Amino acid sequence: MVDLYLDKLAYAVKNADRLIHQAFLEFPFKKDLPESMWRKLVFDSFVLHPAGREICCCLTNADFMFGHFIECRWDYGWKLLSVWYC
Known about the structure:
alpha+beta; globular
């Protein structure tokens, strides 16, 4: 499980810009946020959910989100499953 986590985390680090942009395109409230704000988002958490075979993470930026997060879920093949604002 540790090797799987490290493999998925390494992929996310290498492809962070693409994954964050993919989330932006599916974000239900994207019309309310300029893309320039999305370019400043960072991974705040990164969790594997083995039972669901999902990768879950939160994106944030303390400069403009004030403790809120954008929750993203991908399957193990990096197909985006959902994006939501928390």
